[in-house]
Amino acid sequence: MDFNDIQSAWDNEKTDKVEMPSSLKKIQSANTPLDKIRKNLKKEFIYQVISIVVIAFTPFIYHFPKETFFLFYLIYSLFVAICIYYLVKLYMFYKRINKTDLTTKDSLYETYFDIRLNMEIYKTFGFALTPFMVLFLVAYLFYKQKGIDINTLSDSFVITMFVVIVASVLTMGVVLEIWVRYFYGKYAKEIRKVIDELKEE
To answer: Which of 30, 68, 87, 133 is the most buried (most CB within 10 A)?
Structure first.
């Protein structure tokens, strides 16, 4: 067989049915849930920054007395410091997954565990903000009551406040769990499913 025959045989060979390995297809299928996580993170980051700015104007919106401004902004400054810490972490996570290219099993594993870790960081962020929300609520109630003398509080009022605060914190925990599962957890599960399918091969 001479060179022309080899060339002719090469040209006649069908190349339109080249198939990707199934494992590569599976890895790439994880890109869709990852895109949804990226989209949710971006939206949420913007909304949270806007919320922090809006909360700063609460004393003006609700016409708090000037003497309460110092206490409000003292608590608010601690609130903002915690928000900045966690939002920087979430932003770094967003930048990291934005550069992620799921082409290997290793990158898929790494991304999955990064998502799981940041889901826990997000929950911690919510729990860290809960005491501030309770403080703002209690301060607002005291303001509405035109001041309450702590020395004259009844036992039933103290017990009620205790129950309300504990219930608020627990409710916040449940809401956070549902929120994180809905916006991130279900997509993390889809990526986990791809990982499990790759293990079976």
So the answer is: 30
